[in-house]
């Protein structure tokens, strides 16, 4: 939890910690734009009816009421009240439908915004946090190659965040069609039920899941065993995936001519394409992992979860999938595929586990000293001259003793202190880290590159 | 109001409009950091008790309730409930007190975030909007030169926003001590009452204000007239301000030896310093305007409002002042001075009045064409090569006819279409705006500067 989070679940950073978060956001935005995604920002507020549509998380909504309505909130049904969005997918669906005449399809968008979850205060989870999402939404249809490309964009974004101390990320991909085809081939019908139980594997283990499959989803012991065998399957090439999947189907009597197999084969082809293309562009970044189920039931094709090496306790830090039916307008569908990074948790990891830190608190590279208040105007003029050339500059708060002014610069991590020339002498500038002092011209002096900008480092 | 704002008061922009807002935010951040301000972000949520502290706007708060608490909201007193912040000053006060041991004072911070006001839906005002604030907060005391510098930082920020079509901005400054000293010198005691009525001048005119001063604040006709004369006073140099103010005091029998005059003189000195220093650095950017009163009663020194040439209907677009008593911790005070830009209204002006627009919808400079789906991998490789050199690149969504692919680029405003070489021929790239086509090497080609980045222009 963030230091100084005075309200449980609402993280807040110190200025030097915020530099890490801000630069992480800048980095994600840069990668998303480099890949041709358009940035949007949606309002924080949605109608209750939109928020309630999407099963699982609906329990965790914050509803709003105007102070002047206190006491009469319940005159309005929840569906007609306003609530804070709990993710960026529901707002995207609404946005796309509302603006379908104004955006170009397929619509590739990035969005980095806060979301809110009305969790119980004692759970110790974030109730306000930043999500960073990319999605591609088609008008009517959406080519499956986006199911290959989107996780790869996220891989390159997470790769860029390694500069902030994140370990290597691996995307684990599966495909709902593959799972569904296999389960149907076994003779199981409650597909959503089976997926829901399989999703619990990491939490409760194979034995418990097996029991639940039998008690909750009407599976026989043999069917439950087969489901668990599928979940154990993983592969890093399409060829390996296909070979193992076929063997498993053969073992359980699922014929390749069956409708069930045909459905599975669709998912298999997409999943094979994902791992093979990923292996070409970034070897080792994406694996097929057939236990990935994802809780939410709106996914219809690929599903993804992402884990960091050596940070299993964080769980999946970037998840998503393909959804064909989330956004609709009459008969028209807007199928999409997208992934979402839970950024606040990552920033917390960067700060508290990886030791990420800003090289300095202040963006200023220079503090101009002030000999006395009468000469503050001259100090301001020097600051203006430096700023006009893009050099971030602060001016000493008071005309205190020089030692005190230098201490102020030191506390903020400002590397240079500028001494205005007096009585005909020229200006001088001192690097208070190296101790070097030199004559300097306010119209041409440049800070050393290493001291010119606020940057983020990690480690101790 | 924003096009497509499907919920009244909650503006939402199209992707190409969002580019304008995003670059305006980037510009403000750049100027704030250039001036040595530290960026922070506070949680969107504050305790009801904090939100209710600050008089005037307290009517307009959105309170939160967890969905699971619906029906029991009123078991909790409003003070103990959570609400969305309605400005960035209340959160700053809390933040400074909470982290007083961790930040360097004077604490100079910028903050650009959404705020919410629970206005009546029918009022047609923004209920969610972005504010951009700078403040300096001292520990115990705060030198008055910050009352000079902060409006000048905002002037340079607003100057930078002229690239987005904003007209020239002028800060109108006054000082509460000057007004209070003058009113007390006249024999008036209800200082807050007089300020509140004077603040209505632009809305209801001098005659009505005069009546209110008499009926509400116990003023005689002569006192009311004197208050209005003070409000008429404006000056662009300290010398002019001082001369006119002295003449007015003499006229109304306020002696320079009185306590009331001494109080006014303090405010006069700061205000004179503001206009004179502003005139040196940016002539014409700041004027003394003694009718500026500001509704909020927590200001204790300088107060500012900012108007755009020829956009009087917007009202003040950047306001603030000095507050000595907002943040306290036991006996300790954290006096501050700050200004706040209502950014969403400015963006609305840029878009709908000034004609600000992005040069293109997509951040991508290049769209790589796809001859057929089998060759998509090669197109991806080209895109990767360009991105690795910082060139934002998209890949055609389908292997449609070339004309259709070019049309997709055109719709997104992507200036270049890249044709992968086939059968031993090299790659070519076409600028679809100029029609120029040339051989191109994916490892060295650069777009023309004018087409390399998403930029904002204004006018028709």
From TrEMBL, chains A, B:
Q: What is this protein called?
A: Histidine--tRNA ligase
Reaction(s) catalysed (UniProt annotation):
tRNA(His) + L-histidine + ATP = L-histidyl-tRNA(His) + AMP + diphosphate + H(+)
Taken from the UniProt entry, a GO cellular component term is: cytoplasm
GO biological process: one example: histidyl-tRNA aminoacylation
What PROSITE patterns would the database entry show? AA_TRNA_LIGASE_II
Give yes or no: UniProt keyword Aminoacyl-tRNA synthetase: yes
Q: Where's the Aminoacyl-transfer RNA synthetases class-II family profile domain?
A: 28-363
| Keyword Ribosomal protein applies | no
The family database entries (NCBIfam families) matched by this protein are listed as: hisS
Quaternary form? Answer: Homodimer.
Q: Name one GO molecular function term.
A: ATP binding
Gene3D superfamilies per the record?
Anticodon-binding domain, Bira Bifunctional Protein, Domain 2
Task: Please report which protein family the annotation says this sequence is part of.
Answer: Belongs to the class-II aminoacyl-tRNA synthetase family.
- Tell me which UniProt keywords the record has, alphabetically: Aminoacyl-tRNA synthetase, ATP-binding, Cytoplasm, Ligase, Nucleotide-binding, Protein biosynthesis
EC annotation?
Answer: 6.1.1.21
């Amino acid at each position: 939890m963030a230091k100084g989070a005075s309200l449980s679940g609402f993280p807040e950073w110190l200025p030097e910690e915020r530099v890490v978060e801000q630069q992480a956001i800048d980095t994600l935005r840069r990668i998303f734009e480099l890949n041709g995604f358009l940035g949007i920002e949606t309002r924080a507020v949605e109608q209750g009816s939109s928020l309630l549509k999407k099963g699982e998380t609906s329990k965790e909504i914050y509803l709003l009421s105007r102070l002047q309505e206190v006491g009469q909130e319940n005159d309005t049904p929840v569906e007609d009240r306003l609530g804070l969005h709990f993710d960026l997918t529901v707002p995207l669906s609404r946005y796309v439908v509302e603006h379908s005449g104004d955006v170009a399809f397929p619509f590739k968008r990035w969005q980095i915004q806060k979301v809110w979850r009305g969790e119980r205060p004692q759970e110790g989870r974030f109730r306000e946090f930043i999500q960073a999402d990319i999605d591609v939404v088609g008008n009517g249809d959406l080519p499956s190659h986006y199911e290959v490309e989107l996780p790869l964009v996220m891989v390159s974004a997470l790769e860029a965040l390694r500069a902030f101390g994140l370990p290597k990320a691996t995307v684990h991909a599966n495909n709902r069609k593959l799972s569904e085809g296999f389960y149907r081939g076994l003779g199981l019908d409650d597909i959503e039920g089976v997926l829901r139980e399989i999703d619990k594997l990491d939490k409760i283990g194979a034995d418990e899941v097996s029991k639940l499959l039998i008690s909750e989803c009407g599976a026989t012991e043999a069917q439950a065993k087969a489901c668990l065998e599928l979940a154990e399957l993983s592969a890093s090439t399409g060829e390996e995936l296909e070979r193992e999947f076929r063997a498993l189907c053969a073992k359980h009597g699922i014929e390749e001519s069956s409708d069930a197999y045909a459905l599975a084969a669709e998912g298999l082809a997409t999943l094979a394409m994902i791992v093979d293309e990923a292996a070409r562009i970034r070897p080792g970044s994406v694996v097929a992992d057939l236990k990935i189920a994802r809780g939410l039931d709106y996914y219809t094709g690929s599903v993804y979860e992402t884990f960091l090496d050596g940070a299993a306790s964080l769980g999946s830090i970037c998840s998503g999938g393909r959804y064909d039916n989330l956004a609709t307008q009459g008969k028209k569908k807007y199928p999409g595929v997208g992934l979402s990074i839970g950024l606040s948790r990552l920033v917390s990891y960067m700060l508290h586990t990886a030791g990420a830190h800003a090289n300095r608190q202040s963006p200023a590279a220079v503090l101009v000293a002030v000999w006395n208040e009468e000469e503050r105007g001259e100090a301001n003029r020097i600051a203006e001259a430096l700023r006009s050339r893009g050099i971030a500059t602060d001016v000493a708060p008071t005309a205190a003793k020089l030692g005190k002014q230098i201490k102020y610069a030191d506390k903020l991590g400002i590397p240079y202190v500028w001494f205005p020339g007096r009585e005909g002498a020229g200006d001088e500038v001192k690097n208070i880290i190296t101790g070097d002092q030199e004559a300097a011209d306010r119209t041409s002096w440049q800070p050393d590159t290493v001291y010119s900008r606020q940057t983020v480092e990690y480690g101790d």
